[in-house]
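ingest -> validate -> predict -> emit
validate: passed (alphabet ok, no gaps, 313 aa)
predict: started
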Amino acid sequence: MDKLTAPLSGAKALTGEQTNSSILFPNLVMPDALDGVILKVLRYPAPVPHPDVEVPQALHRVGFTAVPKALGFTTAEIPELGLVTTSITSQLIPDADDGFELACAYTKRNESFITQAERLGENIAELHNALALAFPETAELDLTEFRTALRERAETAIAEIPQLSQYRDAIFNSYNNLATQSELQRIHGDLHLGQILYQPKTDKWYVLDFEGEPLRPAAARAKPDFAERDVAGMMRSFAYAAAVGGTSDPTWANKAAQAFIDGYRRHREIDSIVLNALILDKALYEAVYENRHRQSWLPIPLAAITQMMNSVR
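emit:
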């Protein structure tokens, strides 16, 4: 265990987190965290090894450093769950901007995000290359199972949101025509701008939170999946930043998304058919979430779904 070399002063709790509680210790110095540490207490304890420990450690071993180092963790034995991780201590990235807040600030100023998005695309492609190296397990796609999962998500959305019923045939037809040769690999699993930090001092992006969708079973989150699923999450995140930031430029999100894709393709290929299916799937998931929790934000995914369905008619 690393020896602490500074008192626990200047601690600050983060607000707005939905699945964890985090406390920053900027004055706590450790050998692998000279600028402080962050303690994340898990509200949903997960079996050991926790992906927010396992994945950063594995990525650093293969040379991908654009992720905070995992420094330690605590566990507990729970009768119903077995040995679980209860908290994680990681390297603090000082003076860094939340990716979503940064993008929203750009949209409020109607300022182009193309350069930043392009670099971020390169970063995420390098992340996927590193994940494939650190976790070499792959899997063959069961196309029938994949289509079934997409249809089930669509049926849930259509049943809950009457405005989507007009697109039912178009949605299902787009999934019926789905075919791919993509190989499944380890991915982030819940990637969006809110999982990214930008450090102006070093002009570097950092990727956070590898636990995936926290309400999914831990074993399912670690299974190989499409790298395009992470890309789809980022594409939809640009649309949210444009809407929440309130840009007056209707092309802001599309330009940022295309720049992200351009940067990504410098290091990896993208299956456009799979990507489009997963963007639609993500937008349908968002529509259900917003309908249940944030009605005022429901128009954001609905606008995307409308645009995609009109384009295939």
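Residues 98 and 306 are 29 Å apart (CA to CA).
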